[in-house]
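User: Show me a protein chain along with its predicted structure.
Assistant: Here is one chain, sequence first, then structure tokens.
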Amino acid sequence: MTTHHPTPDRPDPASPWVFSTRELGRRPGNMRAYTRTIDAPADPARLGLDTIAVPAAAAVELDVRLESVTEGVYVSGTVHAPLSGECSRCLDELTDEVDVELSELFAYPDSVTDETTDEDELPRVVDEYVNVEQTVRDAVVLALPLAPLCQEDCPGLCPECGGKRADLPPDHGHETLDPRWAALRGRLSAD
């Protein structure tokens, strides 16, 4: 019995991110739809940014269509996943959800598209398989805010004491005295 070991160039057919295109053949117009729930990858291959991301092992819902076109397999559909992160102003934990659209052409080997595009420009159909993990990662990352907020009007933290402004009284403030007047203040308070 031979065991299949995927290479970096060859998708692992056992991966939930990998779809077979065998049923499509190379007949333009053939289409297959798939719905899968996949565990999000763990660090460092996470789906997201340092400030907000899909938690490791969280359920990522894929609803995709694979369509055979002249130059390859066109993958389209949606991705839904939970998000977890921290507010960029007050540093509180936050949760949210992301819904993104996918649309990516995977070029057939030896097609005009394959021959006229660089390897990093377009993904490829390899041994009748497409691996959508990088396509999903790119779509999710592009949909995320670079500075996530717990709420749109989050007041953030007090720059002087680090207290959360939402929890501080309205008259909260810090007296700032010009150091050049400190000696005078010391004399006046001594009287």
